[in-house]
Amino acid sequence: MMHDSRSRRLRPVVALCALALTACSSESAGPPEDRLCKVPAGSPEEKSLHTVLRADTFRTDWHQPRDARFVEKVEENLRNLADPAAMYTVTGCSYVPKGQVGIGRATIDFEWVPLDAAKKDPAYKRKDPADKEPRTYRLNGATGVSNDVFTSLYVSCLLPGELKEPSKRVLLRTNAAFTVNLGPVHDHGTQDQQMDFVYRMTRKATEVLGCENKPLEKDPAVKPVASQGSAS
C-alpha cells in the first residue's frame, strides 16, 4: 500500500525485495517448457525490460519453479474467494540488472481483486510531492496504472470449468515494483515502458492460466488516457 510519506511508502518495496533476495538465488533460465518468466532475446519484452532496468544484461529469478505451480497457486486463490484471509499474492519473477548488489530490480506478482479495484489503485493515493503523478491507461479492455515505481494492470481472465463463475466476479491484477527507479524522478516515458512490459508479461500469464476470453491477444498501444485522478 502507498503511504503519505515516501519513506513509509517504500517499506513494502524493501520487504518485497528482501523476499526476492532470499526466495530465489538460482540464475537458471527455468525449465525449457515453462515460459511465464522467460524474456526471449530480441522480443518486445526484452526491449522494454532493457529500458526500464537501464541495463544491457540481467538475471531472471523464478519464484515459481514451474508454470504448473504458478497456475496451481492462482487457482487456489480463486477457490478461496469467499475467504479473503486465505488469499495471497503470487510472486512470479524478478529481473535483476547484471552487477546489481542492492534492491534495484523489477518484480512481478499476481492476485485476484474486486471488479472496481482499478478505481482504488494505490498509486492514486499520491500525497508526497516527490511521488510521480500516476498515469492511467486503457489497453485492449484492460486498465493500467503506473507511477515512478509501481505499475498495475487489471484484466478480466475467465477460467474454464468450475472456476468460470468465480473468475467472472474478479479481475486478475498484475503488480510490478520497479525498484530500479527509486531515487530521482524519472520521465513519463519510463512509466510507459513499464506499462508496456507489464502488459506483455500479463499476456503471458493469461496464456499460462488458460483464460478462455484471451483478454490480451492484441499488442499494446501504450498511450495514457489520464495523467491523474482515478480509473473511473
Which features characterize this protein?
232 residues, 22% strand, disordered N terminus, alpha+beta, globular, 6 helices, single chain
Shape: globular
What's the total count of β strands? Answer: 8
Secondary-structure element series: HHHEHEEEEEHEHE
Radius of gyration: 17 Å
Q: Roughly how much helix do the residues carry, as a percent range?
A: 25-40%
Into which percentage range does the β-strand content fall?
A: 15-25%
Low-confidence stretches: 1-32
- Round the mean pLDDT to the nearest integer and report it: 79
Structural class: alpha+beta
- Adjacency order of strands in the biggest sheet: 1-2-3-7-6-5-4-8
Distance between the termini: 19 Å
Alpha plus pi helix count: 6
Task: Note the main sheet.
Answer: 8 strands, antiparallel
Q: What do you see in this structure?
A:
This protein is an alpha+beta fold and 232 residues long. The protein contains six helices and eight strands. It has helices spanning 6-9, 11-23, 44-53, 67-79, 164-168, 188-209, and strands at residues 58-62, 90-97, 106-114, 135-139, 142-146, 150-155, 170-178, 224-226. Strands 1-2-3-7-6-5-4-8 form an eight-stranded antiparallel beta sheet, with helices on both faces. Strand 5 (142-146) and strand 6 (150-155) form a beta hairpin. Helix 3 (44-53) packs across helix 6. The longest helix is centred in the last third of the chain and has 22 residues, at 188-209. The chain is globular and about 45 Å long. The two termini are 19 Å apart. Residues 1-32 have low confidence and may be disordered.
